[in-house]
Amino acid sequence: MAKINTDFRIKLTVLLIIFTLPCIFAQKLQKKDAELLLDKTITFLKVSDEMSFVQLWDLNNVDSSNHQIQFTIKDIKEHFKELKLFLDTAINNRLPIKDIEVNKLDKIEQAEYLSKYKISGYFDYPNSVTKGISFYVNFKKGAWYYKFSPDYTVLVKETKK
Questions:
Q1: pLDDT tens digits, residue range 100-148?
Q2: C-beta separation of 53 from 141 below 8 A
Q3: pTM, entire model
Q4: How many whole angstroms separate alpha carbon 153 and alpha carbon 133?
């Protein structure tokens, strides 16, 4: 009787591990996931697909403590126009994303931005300039979505004289 109980426990434990591991790892943002999300974003900007761009966002801006930040489809469409303008050279010259960063937010930032991660992609321009875009990202319904406004960065490299 004890042997049957032990065998059942082992099988149950193995099944639990098999079915819960994908759930645990599915919510950790990997660099390749960030790259795919940024590539989609750039593709939608290149082909001027505003509707697909809008669908990259999670507009549920209310958390369990009733903290609410207004961010709407209108805001996303405005950022679509701004990003197209900001990255016009990268888009027109088909510059690749040179560097991608994935940063896990601390608890305070997670509460403020309703996101677990912030991803950034950087483009190297020929004139010693790097432009970057960053997005707050959260996992919902089996996929990664942006939250709120993207950040824009311009870095100028010092040239040696």
A1: 999 998 888 888 788 899 999 999 888 888 999 999 998 988 889 998 8
A2: no
A3: 0.76
A4: 6
